[in-house]
Amino acid sequence: METNILDAVHALTRSRLTVALTGAGISVESGIPPFRGPGSLWEKIDPTEFAHIDAFMKNPARVWEVLMGAMKKVLDTARPNKAHLALAEFERRGLLSAVITQNVDSLHQKAGSQDVIEFHGTFATLVCMACGKATPSEEIGLESLPPLCACGGIYRPDCVFFGENIPMEALGRSREFASQCEAMLVVGTSATVQPAAMMPVLAKQNGATIIEVNPTPTPLTAGVTDIFLKGNAGAVLSRLAEAIPIPARG
Ligand code: APR
């Protein structure tokens, strides 16, 4: 067995409290493009023009036409992949306490994960900006953009735009987990967006073992990561799930 997989197995089976931090990379194998890197969303669409709250408030129709409409089509049909399923299995086996995700695609929940902290909110719910009514995204069609609530108000996705704060509860719970965990699995994030990218640093400062899964190194890899598992999340996490022995019953 590869040394780093073995090291990761030891770290995960020894740890009494493990959390995962995930990013767009974990959903690439579900057909959702990442935000950065070759073929990514921000290569095609300027986030300052279409993913900042000021841009949305100034011209919601344009943001829906250029960005949100396309995202909704992909997110409404995406299915969890082997990586999401492996993390859900780790939770069932008592190896993982929670997933802190930067993703708004609900794929961890669709894979069966119970404790998922949606650090950047979710696209699964649209909220009317006039009356506050929340509606499952799948119930809202894209015939006319921006989609309107029965009250005439404009719907916005319940996710965090640039320029907006992280939901208090998500931030509080994430900080708590990061400062108490003994191991953190960091999967498929470029670790460039704050405050999410701070969580592995906080965990490291509190003595946790940082296990990073990514096909390419990130700003964490050199100074924060203890065990770097190079590769795609689906293959690496399935490999890890196979390598962790299931304790004999009784
Ligand atoms: N498996 C694992 N990692 C992968 C895979 C894969 N199959 N494919 C790509 N990656 C890695 C890339 O190497 C990169 O490091 O996933 C990372 C994706 O980085 P980003 O696209 O920057 O995504 P993320 O870190 O989640 O972005 C953070 O930025 O745009 C905002 O709000 C948005 O939540 C997002 C935040």
From TrEMBL:
E.C. number: 2.3.1.286
Molecular function in Gene Ontology: histone deacetylase activity, NAD-dependent; metal ion binding; NAD+ binding
Keyword vocabulary terms for this entry: Metal-binding, NAD, Transferase, Zinc
Domain Deacetylase sirtuin-type: residue ranges: 1-247
Enzyme class: transferase
Active-site residues annotated for this sequence: H120
Binding site for Zn(2+): C128, C131, C149, C151
Name of the featured protein: protein acetyllysine N-acetyltransferase
